[in-house]
Amino acid sequence: MRGLADLYFQQFKTSLASMLQYRAALVIWLIGHVLDPLIYLVVWTAVSRSQGGSVGGYGTPEFAAYFILLMLVNHATYTWIMYEYEYRVRHGMLSFALLRPVHPIHSDLADNISSKVITLPLILAAAAVLALIFKPAFHPVPWAAVAFAPALLLAFVLRFLMEWILALAAFWTTRVSALNQAYFIAMLFLSGQMAPLALLPRPLRLIADALPFRWTTSFPVELLLGRVDFPLALAGIGVQIAWLLLCLALLRFVWRAGVRVYSAVGA
Q1: Domain count for the chain
Q2: Residue among 134, 130, 121 nearest 27 (CA)
């Protein structure tokens, strides 16, 4: 454990130094991260006004609260590893990571967390500006605000493991962009990023409940907004834990199988 703590500390310093060198890239990332929820917020605000001020229980202030909070939750849970692993395998960079005495997932986790530390003030400032413009209506429930912290932590770990497992497809095929795109589309529709899941047709809501996407994004948002009652909140955290355990078992299996077939392709 002490060795892992030292590893994370050194990785934090390296990642922070690297990101501070590429400040322009951080600004571009911030624009992209804010733009998506902003577009959906504007669209659904226009729809609610055209429908008399409310759609599915969401008025303009409620849509504003949902998408601003969604932006913050998405920042806390977002990872990019599935877009990088193809490059690592294809260019042989993974070989160096395999020579280290610790699992490569630890350096990726530390890198991800350090990026969130750097960009958190920027995303909070963007959320504050959006709140001034759109006047969101938050109705937090005290117990839900307390439950939000573990739900958000579980959502982050679950999404990180899901996308790390998906990234390991690069062991079997060096072109995984189509698989990544399919995952992105599923996440967009079934995690609540495009619209609150309550507005989807019932069959899609049932699919969203059965798959892990909702539990990585929409569930923490709904919880903090007071749209989840106490029994459903407990059930939701239980579902997150169940998916997390399943992903841990799947990660162990896929990693071992992938390392057996791995060969560095080279540039």
Answers
A1: 1
A2: 121
Residue 266 belongs to some domain of the structure: no
- Region of 205 on the Ramachandran plot (φ > 0 left; ψ -120 to 50 alpha; else beta): alpha
Contacts of 96 (CB under 8 A, 6+ apart): none
Q: What does 6-31 look like in DSSP terms, one character per residue?
A: HHHHHHHHHHHHHHHHTHHHHHHHHH
Task: Please check whether residue 267 lies inside any domain of the structure.
Answer: no
User: Which of the 8 DSSP states describes residue 199?
Assistant: G
| Per-residue model confidence as pLDDT tens digits over 160-196 | 999 999 999 988 887 788 888 899 999 999 999 999 9
pTM: 0.90
Please list the residues that pair with 55 across neighbouring strands: 58
Tell me how far apart the alpha carbons of residues 219 and 224 are, in angstroms, rounded to a whole number. Answer: 9
| pLDDT tens by residue, 39-65 | 998 898 888 888 877 888 888 899 999
Q: Are 130 and 68 within 8 A, CB to CB?
A: yes
Burial (0-12, 13-18, 19+ Cβ within 10 Å), 122: middle
Structure tokens at 38: 């902003």
Range of the domain at 168: 2-261
